[in-house]
Write a structure and sequence with these properties.
The chain is of the alpha+beta class and 657 residues long. Helices cover 75% and strands 6% of the residues. The two termini are 48 Å apart. Keywords: ATP-binding, Coiled coil, Kinase, Membrane, Nucleotide-binding, Phosphoprotein, Signal, Transferase, Transmembrane, Transmembrane helix, Two-component regulatory system.
Length: 657
């Protein structure tokens, strides 16, 4: 459990600092940027302020962040250097939403910024290389990331020896080394950062986080005295700013210190202070980390009922349980807690959830082990049968030797006759199985052909209706609206003829609704730009104020046949429609990836879930259509749903039609 807390806390700090650090005087910083965007200042100043605001809000308010990002791009059009900077902030916005898109933006930023020879350009290139490494970490691991910082990022800013940005990169490298348990090396880089920051930037946010990183590094080495020294220094820096969101990270490091010193009772009020700040500034993931530490401490204090209630709250909030490995750990802990409390039935239920999720995460390993065991069993069974037959044969030989030649001859004839009967029976059974297999193959081919004909016919009819609506009726209604608008501008008064203009507005809405229907029938973005763009548009269509859809596309080829793309699009459309309509979720994760001939679709939501075994669910039109399309592509679908949410995994064969 202690190791788990270490990994989670480090991961949190690692995510935090994969960006430019916000000043400790946070309110003054944001107010000044917003004043610039609203004032009568040059577009270059407004563009830079908008990009910095986009970076500030990227984790707490994605809609506002995207708005500032778009505004910054628009204002930077006539400023080449700011336009180059834009690609870095575009990568920042996408880093936790779509790592593939983020990686493309970072590489574009590096190419564009390399044309400018100044300190800010060098630092942004260094950050872009670092953040690019973060975007590739899940695929390539930490060694390439460390190499990228040492060979790309740090050399770009080392020539500015007393620059705060060099100190920032040193402490970032220290965080990664701490995460990989290289505590001494991490300490060396923290010391390098402190030499720069303490001397030249004594009140900076970079120095504050370096103190926290140093304290955490010593906590993980169980050296509470050294950790406390750095934590006290961090406290002096944050004290003047009680309204700063960085207070939450200070209290988290203080919690780690108390845990290191096993002062569990004293850690609890510190955790409550940290929770206060996380709730105030909408830092959901960090809040759940506090709650998880609180649970762990309560469990150590044998306050099992409180520990259980705290862990159940973590599950309910769902920030940490989006990761299935975290959720599996929480299920196991709840099972153990209920066992301690004597709730045997509830403990069994949580253990079953744990086992089910654990089985789901390890399906391939389980299959491999089963195949190995089955192979060993079959081999042993064959050897046993051979040994049995040999024993029977030897016994018969002894009996035959005792009998006269007549009986031996008769026995041989009977044995031959029996062997012939067995041989004929085996041939009969084999032919019967072959015929049954042929019939099944023919039946499956006919079913696939029928499904293909139905789906192809359905898509052709959708395309025809969409074309007729858009080009025919849509064009006619648009023409009528234009004629009415032209005529009214010269014959009517907007103040006196409000009813007419109201009807004209209704006509305009009808044209928009007609085009929306036509687009649903046959998505133009799929035909014009391909599958990835079409799915992205679909996610944006379903997104709303209280619903965030995170779409991640990985290695989707643009050369997929159109009918395959269309079937995949319909599958995703049905999945999203079901999640939005029935789940009552506020977070949906959609991931589409391609690997050779396999296309994988995963969708997870934090909604109310459903009982997939109910009669009315299994017979629903939506699921039936979904299964038909999956079967058409020779795919398989797995559904996991409970009150914590729903996860659906689909694997398709893109050459399976």
């Amino acid at each position: 459990m202690k190791r788990l807390l270490v990994l989670l806390s480090l991961f949190l700090f690692f995510k935090l600092q994969s960006q430019q650090i916000i000043p400790l005087n946070e309110k003054a910083y944001i107010d000044s940027l917003q004043t610039i965007t609203k004032g009568h200042l040059p577009d270059a100043s407004k563009a830079t302020a908008s990009l910095l605001l986009s970076n500030y809000y990227r984790n707490s308010d994605s809609i506002l962040s995207k708005k500032y990002l778009a505004n910054g791009k628009l204002l930077a059009q006539s400023h080449p250097f700011i336009s180059a900077k834009y690609y870095y902030y575009e990568g920042q916005y996408n880093l936790d939403r779509n790592k593939k898109k983020a990686a493309v933006s970072y590489q574009q930023a590096i190419r564009s910024l390399s044309k400018f020879k100044n300190e800010e350009s060098d630092f942004l290139q260094a950050l872009a290389w670092y953040s690019y490494g973060v975007s590739q970490k899940d695929k390539e691991g930490y060694i390439p990331l460390v190499k990228m910082i040492l060979e790309k990022s740090i050399p770009l800013v080392e020539k500015y020896e007393s620059n705060r940005n060099l100190g920032f990169l040193y402490t970032q490298l220290a965080v990664i080394l701490t995460y990989n348990a290289q505590f001494k090396k991490a300490e060396d880089y923290n010391v390098k950062a402190l030499k720069i920051l303490e001397k030249h930037y004594p009140n900076s946010a970079e120095l504050f986080f370096t103190y926290l990183n140093s304290a955490n590094n010593f906590c993980y080495q169980a050296n509470g005295d050294e950790a406390e020294k750095y934590l006290n220094k961090a406290e002096k820096l944050i004290n003047p700013y009680p309204e700063s969101s960085s207070n939450a990270f200070y209290y988290y490091s203080k919690t780690l210190l108390y845990i290191t010193r096993q002062k569990n009772e004293e850690a609890l009020p510190v955790i409550e202070k940290g929770i206060f700040y996380t709730q105030k500034y909408n830092q959901n993931l960090l809040a759940q980390m506090f709650y998880f530490n609180k649970y762990d401490i309560l469990k150590k204090l044998k306050r099992y009922k409180e520990a259980k209630a705290t862990l159940e709250d973590v599950l309910t909030e769902k920030s940490l349980t989006i990761d299935l490995n975290n959720r599996k750990t929480f299920y196991k802990q709840l099972s153990l807690l209920n066992e301690e409390l004597g709730n045997t039935k509830e403990a069994l239920l949580w253990e079953q959830k744990y086992s089910k999720l654990n089985d789901s995460l390890n399906t391939e390993n389980v299959k491999l082990e089963i195949n190995k065991l089955e192979s060993k069993f079959n081999t042993a069974e064959k050897e046993r049968k051979i040994a049995t037959l040999n024993a029977e044969k030897n016994q018969k030989d002894l009996e035959v030797n005792k009998k006269n030649s007549y009986l031996w001859g008769m026995g041989l004839v009977l044995l031959l006759a029996l062997s012939l009967l067995i041989f004929l029976f085996i041939i009969f059974r084999k032919n019967k199985k072959i015929n049954e297999q042929k019939l099944n193959d023919i039946k499956q081919k006919e079913e696939l052909s029928l499904t293909k004909a139905i789906l192809d016919g359905e898509e052709r009819e959708r395309e025809r209706i969409a074309r007729d609506l858009h080009d025919g009726l849509g064009g006619m209604l648009a023409g009528v609206k234009i004629n009415f608008s032209t005529w009214s501008s010269s014959h009517l008064n907007p103040e006196k003829d409000k009813e007419f203009y109201k009807i004209l507005g209704q006509l305009d809405s009808s044209v928009s609704e007609l085009r929306h229907v036509a687009r649903n029938l046959m998505p133009e973005s799929l035909l014009n730009f391909g599958l990835e763009t079409a799915i992205q548009d679909l996610c944006e269509f379903y997104s709303r104020k209280n619903l965030d859809i995170d779409f991640q596309a990985i290695d989707i080829e643009k050369t997929l046949p159109l009918n395959i793309q269309l079937n995949i699009y319909r599958i995703v459309q049905e999945l999203l429609a079901n999640a939005v309509k029935h789940a009552e979720a506020n977070n949906i994760l959609l991931q589409c990836s391609q690997s050779g001939e396999n296309f994988l679709i995963t969708i997870e939501d934090n909604g109310k879930g459903f009982d997939k075994n109910r009669e009315n669910t299994t017979k629903s039109m939506g699921l039936r259509n979904l299964k038909n399309r999956v079967n058409y592509l020779k795919g398989k679908m797995e559904i996991n749903s409970d009150h914590q949410g729903t996860a659906i995994n689909i694997e398709l064969n893109i050459h399976g039609e």
